[in-house]
Amino acid sequence: MPLTLQIITPERVVFSEEGVESVTLPGAEGELTVLPSHAPLMTELSPGPLTFRKGGQETDVAVAGGFLEVRDDKVVVLADVAERSEEIDAARAEEARERARAVLEGGEGDVDIAAAMASLRRATGSGMPCSASASPL
C-alpha cells in the first residue's frame, strides 16, 4: 500500500497526496527513508533535502527543521520552512548566505552564534537540492 505524504509549514501546505512510494529525509540522527508499512515513528528533522518518489519520479523539497510523524502509511512532515526545488530563489538564498557569513565573521557586539550558524545552514542548503547551494564556510 503506498504512502500518503503531507508536508506542512506554518504558512501553507507544501504537498499533500497519496500514492507516494518512498520518502527520504534528514533526521536528527542522520538520513532516513520511509517505505510503506514503516513502523510508527516520531522524530526531529534537521535542515536538508527531503526527496519523495511518486510514479517513478523523484521530487526534491528543501526543509529547514521540524518534525516527522509516521503512522499507518501516513507520513506527516511539520517543517519550519519547506520549499520545492523549483520554488527556491537562488539570489535570495545567496543574499541570506552572505548576511549570515558577515555576522559570523564580524563577531562584533551581541552576536547570537547559534542563530547565525542556523541561518547559514539554511542559506547554504546543508546539502539541499538547489542551485543556490554553495559550499559551506
Can you walk through the features of this model?
By secondary structure, the protein is α+β, with helices and mostly antiparallel strands. The chain has two helices and seven strands; from the N terminus they run E-E-E-E-E-E-E-H-H. The protein has helices spanning 90-106, 113-124; strands at 3-8, 13-27, 30-34, 41-54, 57-71, 74-79, 82-84. The chain has a five-stranded mixed β-barrel. Helix 1 runs antiparallel to helix 2 (113-124). The protein is elongated. It starts with a strand and ends in a 13-residue tail after the last helix. The model is unreliable at 126-137 (pLDDT under 50).
Helix and strand element order:
EEEEEEEHH
- Distinct helical segment count: 2
Approximate shape:
elongated
- Roughly what percent helix? 10-25%
Arrangement of strands in the largest sheet:
1-2-4-5-6
Beta-strand fraction estimate? over 45%
What is the tally of beta strands? Answer: 7
Instruction: Note the gap between the termini.
Output: 43 Å
Instruction: Work out the radius of gyration.
Output: 16 Å
Low-pLDDT ranges:
126-137
Q: Which structural class best describes the helix and strand composition?
A: alpha+beta
How confident is the prediction overall: mean pLDDT?
81
What composes the largest sheet?
Answer: 5 strands, mixed, barrel
Keywords:
single chain; 137 residues; alpha+beta; 5-stranded mixed β-barrel; 2 helices
